[in-house]
Amino acid sequence: MNLAIELLSGLAVGCIYGLVAVGFSMVFRATGLVNFAQGDIMMVGAFIGFSIIVAAPSVPFWAVIILAALASAALGFLIERLALWPAVRRNADQTYLVMLTLGVGIVLSNGARALWGGNPLVYPTAITHEVIMIAGYPMPGVYPYIAATMLLLLVGLHLLFTRSWIGLALRAADDDPQTASVMGINLSFASALSFAIASGIGGAAGVLYAPITFASFDMGLIGIKAFAAAVLGSLGSIPGAILSGLIIELGETFGGQLLAPEYQDSMAFILMIAILLVRPTGLFGKGVRS
Predict the structure, then answer these.
(1) In the chain, how many domains are there?
(2) Distances (CA, A) of 250 to 168, 265, 281
């Protein structure tokens, strides 16, 4: 029974890692940039969800996820327009851009601490304490929302990139920016849209993760594990990010059981290193942007 509960819990948290990792991969696909503020955008999304619940307790939890995702998407759009695109337009070095995203993450973290305080906040909604039965085992009530969000995300992104003009434009801008620009695709818009979508996904992940733990200004540290998942899945690959998020969390879960809970973080990264030693380009084999 304990093994089954740990497995289901690991899969749920692994989906959260996967959602944040998708944000890393989407931005990398569009711009070739690693956005280390992604975890902190997730954190802001969690606090936005908290504020929505406090202001309007009758709003359904699924609506809170959508509203927080939209607000986070707007935040990501503004960050890209005001902080990153001006630097990209001036041909800033990649090292500078990475440091810029780290700086944005620190600003978001400290801004959240100033607005919502330094103490962890428990989500004031019934879903936080709700328990459901899954295969006969008691589980947090937020798990079905996590599963539904992951499924909708997979279907939505697939349709976006294969059936819509916007998705095809984003793919073209990723595959060959110069040719895409000649064909009339606005690379600036493609970059901003990718940041917005990635941030919206991160915000939704924050709302889903907070009922399991709590909302805190330092919860953006989960971005480190999500980045590891994105790298393991071949940075830029959306399916790889999701699969690797599950692998990283299951490595944590069972590694902590085999040794001790305090070693579970190390076990997750040891697993990542072991896989990358065998497959240096990641599980999906396209980790380097041409």
Answers:
(1) 1
(2) 34, 11, 21
